[in-house]
Design brief:
The structure holds 2 protein chains of 2 kinds. Chain A has 8 helices and no strands. Chain A is an all-alpha fold. The radius of gyration of chain A is 71 Å and the shape is elongated. Chain B starts with a helix and ends with a helix. Classes of the chains: A mainly alpha, B mainly alpha. Chain B: It comes from Aldrovandia affinis.
């Protein structure tokens, strides 16, 4: 009661308080609501971000694994290619090496044979020398022939001149034009005129000769040779023919085979054979049978060991692919090429 | 009037006609009288005399006409326009041998001047008459006819074909076999004139069996005959490989080399021409001649003679060397290069020089070995002088430049290249520097020599446009040397050094 009474006494106060608190709470209500929203949004944000982070982490893991897988696959591919390229390069290099050798050999042998060419050029030089010499000689001979004929022609001209001027020859009584007494010796023409016959005489002689030819008689008897003497009578008696006698007298010696053969014939024939063999041989060291026999001797094991250290026989070497039972369950990689 | 008096008048007339034609023929031998004779109307007077009743007068009139027509083409045309040719052709078939000779002489004299006149001779039917007179017994007539045919065929292919169509070739070949040297000579010359125009005509001559008979006369002592024989063979051989092979198969080869020593220079020239025509076709034919020692003989021949006679020999060497490097080496081994170098110096005429330059280009263009052989003979400076000389003809300059280029592109003989560095213009210098840039990186001795001889200095002085080939070659050379050396030889290096001295502050 007392409380009620106290309340009733203080109703105004209470009312005032009530309104005041209500007013205060009304004043702060908006701020508080906003603060609550802030807190909630922050919290929710945190929650969501955490979730997203979680998702991202998981995605990254998935991506990481996937990318690693892809990259490894790619790398394997690249490696394979690189290996293939390396092999190809190597093979190409080897092929080039083989081709180089072969081409060098081929060209030297068939296309540009240095020795053959040098030989040819040397031969050509020799031939040229010879041709030059021959031509020089030929030219020289021709020149000499020309000079000779020229000289003959001049000589003939001079003779003709001398014949024509024969009347100028000096006589015993009177020196000629070419034989002046003031000269030490007579002119060349004078000598020439002395040696030739005058043209007139020559013409007369020719006429006489042609007359002889017409008559068909030879007036000059001394030109013919004397005939051989006639042999005396034929010899008497039954003689063989002269030819036969001659043949018998000059018959060559016909020894028997035994006499004709030399006493050392056998030895000589052997020496001859040996010589022929030596001449026909190509190499200095003759072929001797079994000279390479030591190379094919097999390894002989020691008595106290049981291991075989020798090589396996030819044909037992093989490649991996061929031995298939050893490769059970493994992929056989056949030739990369 | 008695009969005697009447006849005396005729006799007198005949005598004066004879005297007239004889004196005209006599006067026509001197060139200074020709114009006067022409102005006096000699043609119209001679024409009736060709139809005179007296054969002597006819002959002499023909002779006089021939001499007049021989003098120049105006008179020859006058003969054609005067309608004299048909008369001549008509009487060529009818008259005696002296007249035939004279008529053939007139035809020859007319035909010699120009293709038109020769065509006029052909048009009046002279060919058949001439071919018939080739069958005459008298060698003089045959000679005159063959000569006229040769002069007709000389001008061009159609006329030549007309001569062939008239059936002259087999008869000419028969004439070649006659014993008279003059006839042989003329027949060979005519065959040469016929075969020079085209392969078909040459083939016709070959088919008539001319080569064997011509080849037999190679060793004939008569020089003029030999000239014509070699000329005919070369005219046949020049057309094609087949024909050249036919000529070679006549086994002329070691024998003709002797004719290169002949005293007559035209024989030598024609032999060299023959060899040139044969070698130019194929390497095999060239090889054959080289193996027979032909190159050595030709080189000797070039040394023996002077002037235009040398030309075919020089060209023959060029052709042989052009075929393959082996043949070019054969020319070098036969000592051809020094001889050609002498020709290049001695000869005055441009076309011989350009042929020599061409031959050098052919010899030197194959390998460094060949180029070296050419360079050792000191040919490069001479070619350069020819190229640089402003008086040289364009052809010579082009040939010299081509030769220089082809030799330089192969030349690795540096002592010969060094002087070129100092003298050559830029378009030749390019090749010289290129050769240096190829050789120097691999040859240390040459690098050293290049510096001491001043080549490097010269190279630094070259002004090359950036980006040009020359600039690349220069930088390739510079890369072979340390930088200091290159800078030391660069122009203006002393100034930069002095500048550095000026700027230097002692501490």
């Amino acid at each position: 009661m007392a409380n009620l009474l106290r309340l009733q006494n203080n109703i105004g106060q209470v009312k005032e308080d009530f309104f005041r608190t209500n007013r205060i709470s009304e004043d702060y209500r908006y701020d508080e609501t906003f603060a609550a929203v802030q807190i909630q949004s922050w919290f929710r944000g945190c929650q969501l971000r955490d979730f997203l982070r979680h998702l991202h982490r998981n995605a990254t893991i998935i991506q990481k694994i996937w990318r690693g897988y892809r990259a490894r696959a790619c790398f394997r591919q690249t490696l394979k290619t690189a290996y293939f390229m390396m092999k190809m390069n190597f093979f190409n290099e080897m092929a080039v090496r083989i081709q180089r050798r072969w081409r060098g050999f081929y060209v030297r042998k068939y296309v540009h044979n240095y020795h053959a060419r040098r030989h040819y050029l040397e031969g050509l030089a020799r031939k040229n020398e010879q041709v030059r010499r021959d031509l020089e000689e030929f030219g020289e001979i021709q020149r000499r022939v020309r000079e000779h004929s020229e000289m003959e022609r001049k000589e003939r001209e001079r003779c003709d001149l001398a014949q024509k001027m024969h009347h100028l020859l000096s006589t015993q009584q009177r020196p000629g034009v070419f034989n002046s007494p003031f000269r030490v010796r007579p002119h060349e023409m004078e000598l020439r005129m002395r040696s030739v016959e005058p043209a007139l005489i020559k013409a007369a002689l020719q006429k006489r000769k042609s007359l002889q030819g017409l008559l068909g008689t030879n007036l000059d008897l001394h030109t013919t040779q004397p005939l051989p003497p006639i042999p005396s009578r034929k010899p008497q008696g039954p003689f063989c023919e002269a030819m036969e006698v001659q043949k018998q007298r000059h018959r060559p010696l016909e020894p028997s085979l035994r006499v004709a053969t030399s006493i050392t014939a056998l030895a000589e024939a052997r020496e001859d054979l040996r010589g022929q063999e030596r001449a026909g041989r190509n190499s200095a060291r003759p072929f001797q049978p079994f000279s390479n026999a030591h190379k094919s001797r097999k390894y002989e094991g020691m008595i106290h060991t049981c291991t075989l250290y020798d090589q396996v026989a030819y044909g037992s070497k093989h490649f991996r692919e061929e031995n298939l039972e050893k490769l059970q369950g493994k992929a056989v990689k056949t030739g990369a090429l | 009037m008695t009969q005697r008096q009447v006849l005396q008048v005729f006799e007198q007339y005949q005598k004066s006609r004879t005297q007239f034609v004889q004196s005209i023929a006599e006067l026509a031998t001197r060139p200074q009288n020709i114009e006067t004779l022409q102005n006096a109307g000699v043609m119209s007077l001679l024409r009736p005399l060709l139809l005179d009743v007296v054969p002597t007068i006819q002959q002499t009139a023909a002779l006089a006409l021939g001499r007049l027509a021989n003098y120049n083409d105006d008179l020859a045309e006058a003969v054609v326009k005067g309608d004299i040719l048909p008369q001549l052709v008509y009487s060529l078939a009818e008259q005696n041998r002296f007249y035939k000779k004279a008529a053939a002489f007139v035809l020859r004299a007319v035909a010699k001047h120009s293709p038109e006149l020769a065509q006029a001779v052909v048009d009046c039917g002279a060919l058949d008459a001439l071919v018939i007179s080739l069958e005459e017994f008298d060698p003089g007539v045959k000679e005159a006819a063959a000569w006229a045919l040769g002069y007709i065929a000389r001008h061009n292919g159609e006329l030549s074909q007309a001569v062939v169509d008239a059936g002259a070739v087999p008869l000419l070949v028969l004439c070649v076999q006659e014993p008279e040297v003059a006839l042989k000579r003329i027949a060979a010359s005519s065959l040469s004139d016929i075969s020079k125009h085209s392969p078909e005509l040459a083939q016709t001559v070959v088919d008539a069996g001319a080569i064997a008979h011509l080849a037999q006369m190679i060793l004939n002592p008569d020089a003029k005959l030999k000239r014509q024989v070699f000329s005919a063979l070369s005219q046949i051989a020049k057309h094609s490989v087949d024909l050249a092979e036919m000529v070679v198969e006549a086994e002329i080869f070691p024998a003709v080399l002797g004719c290169l020593k002949d005293p007559d220079e035209y024989v030598r020239k024609n032999v060299a021409t023959l060899m040139r025509e044969i070698t130019k076709h194929t390497p095999e034919l060239s090889q054959l001649i080289v193996n027979a020692g032909g190159v050595a003989a030709v080189i000797d021949y070039i040394g023996d003679c002077q002037g235009h006679v040398r030309l075919p020999g020089i060209m023959m060497l060029g052709y042989v060397a052009a075929h393959s490097e082996n043949l070019a080496m054969a020319v070098i081994v036969s000592k051809g290069v020094p001889q050609l170098a002498i020709c290049l110096v001695e000869e005055q005429e441009e076309h011989i020089k350009s042929a020599t330059a061409w031959a050098f280009g052919q010899i030197g263009r194959h390998t460094p070995e060949h180029a070296r052989a050419v360079a050792v003979a000191n040919v490069l400076p001479k070619l350069l002088v020819l190229y640089m000389d402003t008086d040289s003809s364009e052809d010579l300059q082009v040939k010299a430049k081509k030769a220089l280029k082809s030799i330089l592109q192969k030349c690795t003989y540096l002592p010969a290249l060094e002087p070129m560095l100092h003298e050559a213009p830029s378009n030749v210098l390019k090749h010289v520097v290129c050769q240096f840039s190829k050789v120097l990186p691999h040859d240390s001795k040459a690098r050293r020599l290049f510096v001491t001889s001043g080549g490097l200095k010269k190279v630094q002085e070259i002004k090359a446009d950036p980006g040009s080939a020359l600039r690349e070659y220069v930088s390739a050379i510079n890369n072979c040397y340390p930088e200091e050396i290159v800078r030391y030889y660069s122009p203006g290096y002393s100034e930069t050094l002095l500048e550095r001295v000026d700027k230097y502050q002692p501490v």
